[in-house]
C-alpha cells in the first residue's frame, strides 16, 4: 500500500525519532537547546526504541525465525531508548513541550492503527494487530510519562541546588 501524501510526516516512526535527535545534537553543537525537539526526540526515541524491541521479540515468540536483521533491529532500537535516557540531563524541556509532543505522538498512533499506516509487522503478529495498536498507545503514554517525570525531577533538583 502506498502512503497517502498527507500521512508521510507521521509514517517513518524510527527515522523521524532519529531525525529529531539529529536536530537536538546540532543545537547542542551550536551551544543551544531546542526544547520542543528535545521533547519530541526523547519521547519518540523511547517509544519506537522499545516498540521495535518488543515487536521483534514477539515475532520470534510467535514463530517467526529471527535472523541477524532482527537482532540488529533489537539492539539498535534499544540503543535509541538508551540514548534518550543518557541525554535527558541536558534537555531543557518544559511541560508545554511535553503536551505538544503528546499530541504529536498520540496523533501518530491514530494514523498508524486507525488508518492502517502502522510499521511493518511480522506476518505472525498480524492476527494481534488490534492488541498491538492498544499496546502502542500505552507505550506512548509510558514514554510521555517517563519524559515528563524526568523533567519534573530535573526541575526540582535544579531548584534545590543539587
- The end-to-end distance, rounded to whole angstroms, is 53 Å
What Rg, in angstroms, do the CA atoms define? 16 Å
| Strand residues, percent | under 5%
Strand runs, count: 0
What is the count of helical runs?
5
Please, what is the average pLDDT?
A: 93
Summarize the structure.
With 162 residues, the chain is mainly alpha-helical. It has 5 helices and no strands.
Salient structural properties:
single chain, 162 residues, mainly alpha, 0% strand
Question: Any overview of this molecule?
Answer:
- The model has no long low-confidence stretch (mean pLDDT about 95).
- The protein has one domain (about 10-160).
- It has five helices and no strands.
- About 25% of the residues are buried.
- With about 160 residues, it is an all-alpha fold.
- Helix 2 runs parallel beside helix 4 (about 95-115) and helix 4 packs antiparallel against helix 5 (about 130-160).
- The protein has helices at about 15-30, 35-60, 70-85, 95-115, 130-160.
- The N and C termini lie far apart (about 55 Å).
- This is Putative membrane protein YpjA.
- Keywords: Membrane, Transmembrane, Transmembrane helix.
- It comes from Texcoconibacillus texcoconensis.
- InterPro entries: DUF1405 (IPR009845).
